[in-house]
Amino acid sequence: MKTLVIVAHPEIKDSSTQQFLKAVIAAQQNITWLELNVATLDETARNRELLHKNQRIILQFPLLWYSAPGILFEWLRVTLRQNDATWLKGKELGIVVNIGQSEEAYRLGGSEGYSLSSLLSPLGSLANRLGLKLIPYFVIEKFAYQTETAKKRLVVDYLQYLELNQPANFEEKQAWAIRSLEEIAVGENNSEIQLILANFVEHKERLTELKAEVDLMKEVDDNEY
Hints:
By secondary structure, this protein is of the alpha/beta class. The protein folds into 2 domains: 3-168, Flavodoxin domain (Rossmann fold, 3-Layer(aba) Sandwich), CATH 3.40.50.360; 169-225. It is built from 10 helices and 6 strands, in the order E-H-E-H-H-E-H-H-E-H-H-E-E-H-H-H. Helix 1 (16-24) links the parallel strand 1 (3-7) and strand 2 (31-35).
């Protein structure tokens, strides 16, 4: 699947979050990174070509004053046409939003008083108007305070969000991890990575066996009623 990541940030070069995510996808051949600025606003033909070429469209931005940065809505205004639903229909729209608080703050009764779903609903309406399939949004919480372990987890979760069918199930995530390890192992010929890959595959096979046993037990229980 080809994915277009449209990044809206008023000071993107100074954003540790966006620069981190940009580095994450740098080697991914099927992901295109598009930063919005004065220049890209004027490249209407190229922007529309990118929308044509990619099956999954990601709107990525920080939540500023409970909304996306204004440049994103300006880009949408100058790029899209009223009849674009004829060729956009069936493509996917995802949202990657980073927030300075925990997601729990953005819910009814939370400190912010409104859920992220309600704050992002205008983009959901856009998806509906254009016939886009809206996939669950992806939240990055308090990036500046994340540990190195959390950031490594973010790399995996972010790439899986961009590349896998959403929502992805456990088996799909496992298969993705094995493919990624295989690619790294081939490229680097690293014995340590080869060992990690072998252990991962072994655990995957065991988990598959356990799942089959659990499913069989459930089937037996269901037949007793």
